[in-house]
Amino acid sequence: MKKIYLLAFLLTTMTTFAQEAEKSGKKEVKTCEIKEGFKEPERDKKTKKWAKQMNRFNEGAFPSLEDVKNHVAIDNDCDNSEVTLMRLSEQAGNGIYVYCVKGTQLKYKRMGTVIMIEGENPFKNN
Questions:
Q1: What distance, in Å, lies between the first and last C-alpha atoms of the chain?
Q2: Which of these, 13, 77, 102, 126, has the minimum number of CB atoms within 10 Å of its CB?
Q3: How far apart are CA 90 and CA 68, in angstroms?
Q4: Which helix (H) or strand (E) is 45 found in, with range?
Q5: Among the ranges given (48-57, 82-91, 99-108), the one the predictor scored with the smallest mean pLDDT
């Protein structure tokens, strides 16, 4: 009998926590403002060299920062001039980019040649 009560208690608490996690999964909208004289960051020397080597053998294998910026602009229905790169972190096969788009801060990630908003499930059907 104790095992049944314990099992019921555990199932109830797990269900409650799972529902709370779903509710708190809402995205916060962060605002950003670009100060006068802000200069967009560039890739470091090592990443530039790696990208050059990859693109020599397979054109487009490593998207440029301009390619990522174009993708962000198309995603948000705006012009490239309204998109500003604030931070970036890149490795050989992936990268994280923080952009300011029309006063809203958005975080994108790149896995290989795929670029998407961070936290978004690419396999989810709407």
A1: 44
A2: 126
A3: 12
A4: helix 45-57
A5: 48-57
Residue with tokens 């050989």: 92
Nearest to 31 by CA among 110, 96, 86, 109: 86
Written as six digits, the tokens of 89 are: 């972190």
Q: What is the rounded CA–CA span in Å between residue 73 and residue 84?
A: 10
> Which residue do the tokens 């993708």 mark?
71
pTM of the model: 0.70
Cα separation, 8 vs 1, whole angstroms? 11
| DSSP SS3 for 33 | coil
Q: pLDDT tens digits, residue range 20-56?
A: 544 444 556 789 888 899 999 998 888 888 888 877 7
Place of tokens 């916060």: 28
Tokens of 84: 């500003």
Residue 118 near residue 109, CB atoms below 8 Å: yes
Query: Residue 8 corresponds to which amino acid?
Result: A
Opening angle at CA 75, ends 112 and 85, nearest 5:
70
